[in-house]
Hints:
There is one protein chain. It is built from 9 helices and 7 strands; from the N terminus they run E-H-E-H-H-E-E-H-H-E-E-H-H-H-E-H. It is α/β, with parallel strands linked by helices. It folds into 2 domains: 1-27 and 105-192, Rossmann fold, CATH 3.40.50.300; 45-99, no CATH class. The longest helix has 25 residues, at 75-99. It is globular and about 50 Å long. The mean pLDDT is 91.
Amino acid sequence: MITLGLTGSIGMGKSTVAAMFADEGVPVFDADAVVHHLQGPGGRLVAEIEAHFPDTTSELGVDRTMLAEAVFADPEALARLESIVHPAVGSERANFLARHADAPLVLLDVPLLFETGGWEHVDKIAVVSAPADVQRARVLARPGMTQARFEAILAKQTPDSEKRARADFVIPTGGTLESTRAAVRAVIACLVGAAGG
């Protein structure tokens, strides 16, 4: 099995590309979706997060906005939150890999692959990338997004240029969906062919 880590900065189209891999039959581990599940209604991290960050949860699970406000400008609080979340996500990832042990290729969709050291646990890395003006337009079109918030998020992410330099594959997402899908298929063909599948 080859594990392909997929990452990309905010607004680069990572979720769209992950869905394209799934459409091609590649099992996809979506780290964000796992976090949402763990922190959602009845999620196994809700009580622990509430214990460390009071008033950030309800019967609906973790209030992500309240939690973000509690940790965003406090590196120690963020590290505490990560020490709760990352091991749980790691456990879910191990279960996913065990379930798909016979697959020639699996995709690990991890937004902060470089920032959290996840790159050390994959065989190859694919980065989604679009021109900066396309990225900015996409992100600023999101509900509640501001220029200041966008810049604050970018400041916490590894720059796109560095991600591209460290990637085994760069999947361009600034053009048509068809051109992006062709790039995804080329990556799969390269990797599955290399594995003899």
